[in-house]
Amino acid sequence: MLKKIVMATNNANKLRESGEILAPLGIEVISQRDAGADIEPEENGTTFAENAMIKAKAVYDIVKIPVIADDSGLCVNALDGRPGVYSARYAPKGEECAKLIEEMKDVPDEKRGASFQCVIAYVDDNSCFTVNGGCIGKIGYEEKGTNGFGYDPVFVCGDRTMAEMSAEEKNKLSHRGAALRALYEMLSKKG
Ligand code: IMP
């Protein structure tokens, strides 16, 4: 089983969470920058899986050691799955929660369901595959909590938003946690 993996991301939060989730499983995650790949590939796919694979392959072509990439986002039922793959581009950074609360202001309680989705792509010398993870919750009426990033302050999971949870609690429940544990299962079978 491999011990070190490069993560194709320039997002410090994804990198931190992935490191926290994989470290107890014995895998060290290093950033693409530390591995010598200072690139930002264009994410022009139409699905999480396509975008994750674009990022993983682009970084693998440079570093030539096992790479993972995360493509993820928030799918809101009342918005027909938006912002979905466009979650990072829905609003300027730091304004995404306020914009979503405004867009959802007339949506009643029972129609506020949403899910976080995460696809992890894995690429090495002789294999490439994707795994998925999801987390079901609903969209709150106001921002709550200061932990996490992105839509965490408006994503209610159980009785709290993800931004009100500790990193450990979020990682147990999150889409990223589920996807990375599925990755670990796949790698365990691969040997
Ligand atoms: P991308 O995968 O780089 O295209 O961007 C994913 C975007 O989805 C992030 O910029 C966040 O806005 C959102 N997102 C993904 N995962 C999370 C999460 O764990 N918490 C909050 N927002 C997330």
Overview of the molecule:
The protein is α/β, with parallel strands linked by helices and 191 residues long. It has one domain: Maf protein. The chain is built from 5 helices and 7 strands; from the N terminus they run E-H-E-H-E-H-E-E-E-E-H-H. It has a 7-stranded mixed beta sheet. A hairpin with a 4-residue loop joins strand 4 (113-123) and strand 5. Helix 1 crosses helix 5 (175-190).
Structure characteristics:
191 residues; alpha/beta; Maf protein; 7-stranded mixed beta sheet; 30% helix; binds inosinic acid
Q: What characterizes the major β-sheet?
A: 7 strands, mixed
State which percent range the strand residues make up.
15-25%
Structural class category: alpha/beta
Architecture per CATH nomenclature, i.e. the level-2 architecture: Alpha-Beta Complex
Q: Major sheet: order of its strands?
A: 2-1-3-4-5-6-7
What is the C-level CATH assignment?
A: Alpha Beta
Elements, N to C (H/E) = EHEHEHEEEEHH
Q: Count up the domains.
A: 1
- Please state the average pLDDT score: 97
CATH topology: Maf protein
| Assembly category | single chain
What is the end-to-end distance? 5 Å
Individual helix count: 5
What radius of gyration results from the CA coordinates?
A: 16 Å
Sum up the overall morphology in one term.
globular
- Give unreliable regions as ranges: none
Number of strands: 7
Question: Helical content, roughly?
Answer: 25-40%
Distinct small molecules: inosinic acid
